[in-house]
Amino acid sequence: MTPQVTDHKGGVWSIAVPIPDNPLGHTLVHLLETDRGPVLIDTGWDDPDSWTTLVAGITACGFTPAELHGVLITHHHPDHHGLSGKVREASGAWIAMHAADTAVVRRTREAEPGRWLDHLTARLAAAGAPDEHLAPLREARAQGRGRTYPGQGAALPDRDIGPGELLDLPGRRVRALWTPGHTPGHVCLHLEEEHPSGRADGFGRLFSGDHLLPGITPHIGLYEDPKGTEDRKGTEDPKGTEDPKGAQDPEGPEGAGVHDPLGDYLDSLERVGKLAPAEVLPAHQHAFTDATGRVRELIAHHEERLRRLRELLREPRTPWQLAMAMEWNRPWEQLPYASRNIAVSEAEAHLRRLVKQGRAEQVPGSGPVRYQAV
Fold it and tell me: Cis omega (within 30 of 0) on the bond before 368?
């Protein structure tokens, strides 16, 4: 197997690690050379072919897995954190992640079998999903399915990545930026070094994970709830945005109206836009420049979407009904089953934003819950 490896110069490489059965195709795992040995940024999906590709890619960069010094995880999703356990076994490398996402990993490892099915069923029912959509989930629970899900083999991180922290990477200057939105603990990593090409339009390079991508937008759904996790292996985002994860984080009823993932994401985008790196090295698609311009596009995209949703809410709707009326990359009737779950989570995150802004409100006494424009 010949891995797709790109030399970005200056001791920075990327390795395209495949995501099985997913339209995104691969995760770009980055290798950063340091004075103590190579460090990976993300690891890829836990799959035999993915592991083989990662090992071959590390070798193509001039190293062996045993030489890995550490692993920096941008966020907990399985296509980023999935192979961390195998990397640790092969190298003894430390693994670092923001504490908010480490908490998700810990709960995933400790989760009672079938818990995520119970939680997903309850959340979708509360959102107004019809019985015919809930029936497969209830059947799976009754048959004892759902006992495994992506992320269970991932390592528990042993180091925290603190916001604004200059990471302990001898010979390199890498600073962490906390960029919640896609997950509560997502981080970008700013390589505070002159670009090897001598580019003057911006400073350094940004390892952006899923926060900033050149042609797609990350899925913004509801954050994780301590009671369980939701499995969507190999599903596609119905907007063509980005969610291969298999472990989106639902939020329980007791958290309703507290968290604002879309607001977090937009605030994080503003911070990245002001940083103005010379180049962005994302976890999907390809490297690109003009981070500030891309940030403006993404903010405008979500503002326009919020405007359209408020128009839809002139008529009271449940989150399920709102998702059905929203624009996706294909008609609702053609969306795969799991993609409809993603769509509802996306609708709920946008509803949270509208409610927080005072542009929508819950209809009193409605059940399942309905919202209307204010």
Answer: yes
Map residue 334 onto helix, strand or coil.
helix
pLDDT tens readout for residues 271-319: 999 999 999 999 999 999 999 999 999 999 999 999 999 999 999 999 9
Specify the pTM. Answer: 0.88
Burial 188-224 (b: 16+ CB within 10 A, else e): bbbbeeebeeeeeebbbbbbbbbbbbbebbbbbbbbb
Residues 6+ apart with CB under 8 A from 202: 195, 276, 277, 278, 279, 289, 291
Longest dimension (CA), the chain: 63
Alpha helices, DSSP H only, in the chain? 48-60, 78-81, 84-91, 99-110, 115-126, 131-142, 261-275, 291-312, 319-325, 337-356
343/10 Cα distance (integer angstroms): 40
Q: What is the pLDDT of residue 151?
A: 58
User: Residue 139's Cα: distance from chain center in Å?
Assistant: 28
